[in-house]
Amino acid sequence: MFPRVTAVLVVRHGGDHLAGTLDGIRSQVRTPDALVVVLAAADAQAREQAAAAGATHVVELQEPLSFGEAVRAGERVLDAPESDADALWLLAEDSAPEADALAALVAALETARSVAVAGPKLMEWDEPERIAGMGRTLTRLGRSVPIVAGELDQGQHDRLSDVLGLDPAAMLVRHTVWRALDGFDPALPTVDDALDLGVRARLAGHRIAVVPEARVRFAADGVAGPEGDGRGRAVRRRARAARAAELHRRLVYAHAALVPLHWLSFLPLALLRSIRHLLVKRPGAIAGEFAAALVTMFSARRVARARRVLARSRTTGWSSIAPLRMQPDEVRRRRQAAAEARRARARGRTDELQFLGAGGGWVLLATSAASIGLFSWLIGATGVGGGGLLPLSGFAELWRNAAYGWRDIGTGFAGAADPFAAVLAVLGSLTFWSPSFAVVLLWLVALPAAAMGVWFAASRLTERGSVRALAAIAWAAAPMFLAALADGRPGAVLAHVLLGWLVFAVLGAATSWAAAATASLLFAAVVAAAPSLTPALVVGWVVALAVSGRAAVRLAGLPIPALALALPLVIEQVGRGTPLGLLADPGVPVGGTTPTAWQLALGLPGGGWGGWEELVRAVTPLDPRIVASVLVAPLVLTALAAVFSPHLRRALLALGTVLAGFATAIAATHVSVASVGLEVVPLWSGAGLSLAWLGLILAAVVALDALRRGAAVIAGTVALVAIVAVAPSVVAIATGAVPLAPAGERSLPAYVVAQAEADPRVTTLVMEPERDGGIRATLEHGTGATLDDQSTLDQTRTELTADEEELATIAGNLASRSGFDPEAAVREFGVAFVLLVPATDDAREPTQAETRARTALDGNASLVAVGETDFGTLWRFAAAEQDAAAARIPAGAGGWLSAVITTVQLVVIGATLLLSIPTGAGREPDRRPVRRRPRRRFLPPRPAARGAEEAPVEASVDRTHPTADAPEGDDDGR
Amino acid sequence: MAVDRKLLRIGARALAFVAAAALAVGTVAAAALVPWPEHRAEVPSLEVQPAESRQLRVCPGPLLALGEDPTAATTASSVGSADLVTATEPSGVALEEVPLEAPGNPRAAEDGSPVAIAAEPGGVDAGMLAGAQSQTVESENLSGFTAAACGEAVAESWLVAGSTSLGRSGLVLLSNPSAVAATVDVRVIGETGAVEAPSALGIIVPPGTQRVLSLAGLAPNLTSPVVHVTATGGGIAASLEHSVVVGLAPAGIELTGATAAPSTRQVIPGFLVPQSGGVEATEDHADGDEHPAVRLLAPGDATAEVSIGVVPESGSGGTTIEATLQPGQVVDVPLGVLDAGAYTIRIESDAPVVAAARATVGATTGQTDASAPGDLAWTVATAPLLDAAVVAVPPGPSPTLHLVNPDADAAAEVTVASNGSERTVTVPAAGAASVQLEGGASVVLRGTEGLYATVSFAGDDQLASFGVQPPGPLDSPIRVYPR
């Protein structure tokens, strides 16, 4: 009997694709016996076209149902199949069959009774010579893979016949089998619906064949199968649907006993696969990964239904599937091919930084030599002290201090850690056997590290070695950098070192997820080290978002790690009404003279004229202010010349950075939030100046890059003057005329340190006469406070805590003749020692306060004098006990909050870290703008060339490979 | 056309450069000139009022004499006993009198020993405890009248008095009333500079004990010694007993307490000159101790230019003497020829100095061995008083309270309450006033903030004085910065 073929056409949108498809159906050699058009929430044009198509039935659906459901609705209007030979031809609006397609398909069903489903060779709509799909199969682990995808059709696959599954579009399925198998699984709306049908047909004893002679043009509009769009959102949606389908099939196909195990494995697997997504720079896929796992986990009814349908129709064992699965060696071969393709893509893409070729090696060598010359007195030291430097705690405590919890400073309290403590923890872990040594290392490598950062940043803007060298040298010889090094300000030094690298990473972030993640980590570190830069950097971020176009996606997450680190602190500071305290410089507050606007304009944050005042007065009658200004002028003028550059936007951005940095520095001199004793410590204006200096340097780079000739000479001159400008500071540092000195591991007398060996919590009450005749009383535990113990939360508190008032009362009474019970110090705080630091100036009040305290302590019968030490006079409490309960850190100080906050921070930082590992070479699409070739002087002066000069090529041309992000391409793990 | 466009472009760029430069200069100018708002955090601190404690004053005890017992020539044994008077506010508080050990004095059991008077915490108002003692001796080697206030035990005190030249002897009395041992360094500075006396360094004074050092033993043949006592551990109340023998006859004795700490400004109130006479300040050879003189020492490292004002208490007249002090060298400056009466000595200096003034009575020039013995007194510089003070007046000849007001602008009204009667004394601006007191009385002064005060005694052949010192700063409030 002549088989009856009913074509079921699912339509959503009208237009060219639908017209082509209808033409294709009409022009069939073997026309379908009936045409059912299913309008799934179709638009008016589609309705019109469908009406004109001469359909047997038109089924109108109000909802945009999936392809499988739409077909089911269309099939419902048909009579029951009269024979096994009757077939359904499942078409979508975008699948235009060639004239003999149906004939070939029908022939396949007729020649082999065992074949229940036959599919065509799907060709790309726009490139009909390229294969879009030709059957699908499963790997041994159940992942759905296309058998052929994206290959040019040269007949190389035309011998393919039996397959495990098909793509849904234009497949011909025996009507009886369709009914027996209950159609497509409603739980697989887009992906793997036809593959699943194939698997079930195979298990029911049928075969699935692909018919290479039947060619169907297919546009992947998303009606049948997933949308073939290359844009990020569609890619993410497809990846999510594929993962959900895979997990659903896993639950359906698995042995009943294993289903709970599979179910339990979904979330852990999602976690592991998310890590992999980060490593292969596909952070967008993570949300879909978890959504797929969760949705599948909580769709028990659909799984049960699918398992019931499968069990009902199944007649053979799973062994019948095995030969059609993709074999492991084929999987391996494909993986190798993908890796090879990645390598090939990456090859042309590595940034041509030409580190050695452009003289980066020489700059590194020169700055290293300069650093050794400057800090020769630090070589061999195990620690450095003075200024704002203290030792670091041991490895474990270092990390404890980086987490929310007990802040072991003074009387101690539970609260948020400074983000800077996390930076210190990372820094100290570099030399985990002796974290304090890391600070020495930082001081030794700061100069070359800073120089290299800006060298690389400049390499993004210019190809000239001389200009890059100028940038590096001017950055390393920046006056505020040397001031921070001389004063011992670890935060400012780190911020200066990292700012250059931040610019380098941000300039790369436009094209690479790895660079974007690195930038966000550097951003977090810079903000942690110099919180006063935050407003300027956030403004910079917003501007970058606005001007970076599509790259904004990768920049959008820039502040996330910084926010994760700082959020607990932000909440506490804002909650207690001291939001400005967030700007406080972390670490030990170091006071100093407030600089004038003129000094700031010269990059001098220390309140002096860069050491020129003595030198100039000694030699010439010139005003030292003029000398210092003249020496900065070349760099400033070169930077202003950036407005001549054809890259006007770059120039304006760089000069805007100068403005933001200078404004930050000026604002810093007007804000003081932290206090030490009775000193109010203004913010360090050097951090803002670092930013301004960076802008100057980048502007100068832009200006010199635009010069046709003479750039090297100007760069050399500017660099030379920049070095001369800091000569007095350099001499001061090199000769050790700075408050820093190689220091041991302690800040308390040796006697106390020896006690701390036995009792790490031994508590010392340190009293220091203040210049108003009062005393500063602080508690030190063990060998003394460390840099990571410091807390801006403590320094910026405007009121005393109850503990601090108690301490003040005890200290005030100890420094007086008093009836107060001195043992309260032992009882309340576990104090074992009292150290009276000598007054630092000879004025009457501090000397009197010192004498008073000394007399009172001397005459106190509960105290035993230990004697004079390097740090002051020391007394011991006769009643002091070992391991005093009052001196211990309260157990569980942070409570559950500590665990939650630490976990969130670790997850965010860990994820960013994974994303920043540069494993993405070749995986990420090449988003680099076309590089402007340097103009050659010997170019013939053609009018065209002049035109190019006027209209700079800055448009970012995306050489996007649309399939590079497709999950099928290289997704080979779980 | 191309040239025009090029010119235009160059012009635009130059304009942009100028605009950028102007913006830069404008920014710096705005930063410098605009009064931007400021935020300065306030420093949290706590003013701590020390808890009330046991208040303590130490009285030096009976006068001592070296070699009274021929068998023990180096032993200082007591000569008679002193009369002790105490004063408190509120009055009538029960005071504890704790005798100190005087291990060197074989007659302590008969004559009594140094006494610490103590008020329990809260018993008296802060600093409102005073004690004073007086004693008259007439013996073969000693004669005269002494009066001394009971002082606080402190870490550092300056004794400006005495002499170890022929016929003069001195004893340094170191009393430690506290519960801990005191390690005391005694340094003697003379007219030629500091005297090397290693034996006087690191003297241990056990708790509750008085130790006595012979000044002559430490520094013989000094005309003008100044004794600097520093103590670690317990505090020390130091005083200097000074006696004079002219020829074979005793010619006066004095027990001097600590003078005010080094300062660029010192006031010696109530300096009593019983007889007219003296030596001009310019006199180079003003030997002997019969003339009124002021002893000065600049303990620092710098030369001090000193101006000494000597003003009668009546307020009229007065002289000013200029002197130059070499650092670390003691100078006795004669005060010129003065009429009998009470004077205020004001010392202004450009470097910190310590000072005390000396006067004698009954010892006229050319006196022979057999003539009536005289007496001498050292009047020390005092520190400014607090708003209230309490003074114990020991028995003695015509005790007088001298008040000095350093304020050149406003007179001070001082209420003097004694034995139930109350008087108001006006101390004129930059002037002085004196109030007759009764021996054995307890006097409470109010309205004395910033004033200086001395109690003097003067009889025919008797002269003594002690300064009224404010309580030490040890129990005053102190500001603490616990961060």
General description of the model:
- By secondary structure, chain A is of the alpha+beta class.
- Chain A is built from 37 helices and 22 strands.
- In chain A, strands 1, 2, 3, 4, 5, 6, 7, 10 and 11 form a 9-stranded mixed sheet that branches.
- In chain A, β1, α1 (about 15-25) and β2 (about 35-40) form a beta-alpha-beta unit.
- In chain A, α7 (about 230-255) packs antiparallel against α8, α18 runs antiparallel to α19 (about 515-530) and α18 (about 490-510) packs parallel to α27 (about 685-705).
- Chain A is elongated, with a radius of gyration of 37 Å.
- Residues about 930-974 of chain A have low confidence and may be disordered.
- Chain B is mainly beta and about 475 residues long.
- Helix content of chain B is about 10%, strand content about 45%.
- In chain B, strands 20, 21, 22, 23, 24, 25 and 26 form a 7-stranded antiparallel sheet that branches. In chain B, strands 11, 13, 14, 15 and 17 form a 5-stranded antiparallel sheet that branches. Chain B has a 4-stranded antiparallel sheet with strand order 16-12-18-19.
- The chains are: A alpha+beta (about 950), B mainly beta (about 475).
- Chains A and B meet through α23, α26, β15, β19 and α32 of A and α1, β1, β2, β17 and β35 of B.
- β15 of chain A pairs parallel with β1 of chain B.
Q: What's this entry about, in short?
A:
The complex is a heterodimer of chains A (974) and B (483). Chain A has 974 residues and is of the alpha+beta class. Chain A has 37 helices and 22 strands.
Low confidence ranges of chain B: 364-372
Let me know the number of strands of chain A: 22
Helix percentage range of chain B: under 10%
* Helical content band of chain A: 40-55%
Strand content of chain B: over 45%
Q: How confident is the prediction overall: mean pLDDT of chain B?
A: 86
Q: Structural class, judged by helices and strands of chain B?
A: mainly beta
Radius of gyration of chain A: 37 Å
- Major sheet of chain A: 9 strands, mixed
What percentage of amino acids of chain A are in beta strands?
5-15%
Quickly count the helices of chain A.
37
